[in-house]
Amino acid sequence: MLARLKQFFLRNTSPKQTIAKNVAWLTLGEIFGRLIRMLFVIYVARILGAEGYGVFSYVLGLAGFFTMFSSAGVSSVFLRNASQTPKSRYEFFSVTFFIQLVLLILTIALVIFVAPLFSHIVGVRLLFVFASFLIAFDGFRGLAFAVFRFSERMELEALTAVVTNLAITGFGFLAIFLAPNPLSLIMAYAAGAGVGALIGTLLLKNWFARIFRCFQKDLIRPILLTTSAMFLTTVFGRFMFHIDMIMLGWWRSAEEIGLYAAAQRIVFLLIVLPDILAVSVFPLLSRLVKLGDSDRVERLMERSVILLFSISLPLVVGGIVLARPLLIFVYGQGFASSSLFLQLLLFSLLLLFPSRIILNFIFVHNKQRIIATSAGVGAFGNVVLNVFLIPAYGAAGSAIGTFFSLLINQGFLWYVAKRLQPFRTFRYLPRIFIASLLGPGILAYVLYYFAGLHVLMVILLSALFYFAFLYILRDPVITEFQSIFRRFLSSSHSNTQSS
Hints:
This protein is mainly alpha-helical. It is built from 19 helices and no strands. Helix 4 runs antiparallel to helix 10.
């Protein structure tokens, strides 16, 4: 059994097993790592209060807006190119590394000298200096993650992510103990990110040892051409998700920003789930599209999108029902008034979850310019909606604007994806919706507001009901997991008998 576990979780033996293994490791790494950091952030929010936490969130949000210049999609371009042409992986990595280095230098300069000009909050200039170090370390760690994903060694990514979050939390507690203020907290984040970047570099020392001798200047132009479109996509994407915080800072108080940031952080945490699946599927999807295997591409897309809807729908329904008690449990009574912000933001999950797979699908078809155009339209729409909605409705208006701008953006991308490769998903949605309404919806409402159960117990029981209902209906997502699990048990039993 131990040998079989080692084979399943540390080796790549088949496409389904590899995806399942990668999902397992990324889920473990993200949930464990982010849970540690989220618990720490909750503690910090309680210590700093809404205003202090608002300053911290505003600086990170504004600095994060400028990270679009550091990422620019170069890691995604490397992952696609290396997956489709593995023999040139070291050459792609070398050129990507130097492009990333130049972009990081540019971003650091922008964060230190330009970002403070956008803020009217007093005394935040020094915070941006340390935020720039955080961005630089995260940039190198992101490049290391791209290599882990190409190699489909997500166990290394999980290890790096967990250690990074542990380091951030450890330095963070020390900083808060010594000086409980936003500056010390950002310094702790930067130090922890530095630990993560160091680990990623050490794990890929053989790759970094080749960056000079494998450098091919002929690859610079094609990579930059592809990266330019991805850069625009990154710019518009970052713009869409960070402009809310910036524009709220123009018209609203730091306290309201803190309340909105608290709700937004929960949504950002949930978005990790589709990212895990999208990252795990990407190398296989890229290879299948390169080979022109349309039948397997169709099946992979259908299963992936259905799985994401089966997760997002119950999260939205249950989140709307339990938003207030969940926020009180997580952040404390002082953040109860952000429940409306969370309820409105949760609707965006219905668009954000499948978008991860749809974006990758269009990208591997080399249609990144379409993605950039769609992202630009969505970002522009978000700004226009914010101008009209934030002055009148504050953070609630920002959440509404985010949803409708995403609807414009994702609606067009769905149309493009369907034209590239027809696949069917909506026929499976009725049973998922019914299960979500009965479990995370009605049952959760009754258990909390009438039976008086703790919010965590309500979440657990409603989730069990939801998956049991799908099991009874023989939902394809449940049967797919059953197939993988039975194959694992069968192989384990065979190995035991042979030994």
